[in-house]
Specification:
The chain has 106 residues and is mainly β. It has no helices and nine strands. The model has no long low-confidence stretch (mean pLDDT 92).
Length: 106
């Protein structure tokens, strides 16, 4: 079942825990059914691949793996601070709001 998430694609987020704690990155993909996100340059895994038509050489491919959405915090584009996300209802529907400065993030 899909869940409304506090993170959207192309958001800038700060990593809260794990080996990459304190780093920031852009969200590449959101997986709401699994409550996970893929962040650029964070949680890199190495896959050993066989030769194929797309990759005739084969070898080791590095790519970012999903991590739990609860481990990231959105950075507000207006105040450039990691913040919690609030929701406000308007004429256009629900919008994300920065808890620190009060401006909309969408």
């Amino acid at each position: 079942m899909a869940v409304k998430m506090h993170v959207k694609k192309n958001d800038t987020v700060k990593i809260l825990s794990g080996k990459d704690r304190g780093k920031t990155g852009k969200v590449l993909q959101v997986l709401p059914a699994e409550r996970r996100v893929v962040v650029e340059g964070i949680n890199i895994i190495r896959r050993h691949t066989r030769p194929s038509r797309e990759n005739p050489q084969g070898g080791v491919v590095e790519r970012p793996a999903p991590l739990a959405a609860s481990k990231v915090m959105v950075i507000c584009p207006s105040c450039n601070e990691p913040t919690r996300v609030g929701w406000s209802r308007g004429e256009e529907g629900a919008a994300r709001v920065c808890a620190k400065c009060g401006k909309t993030m969408d």
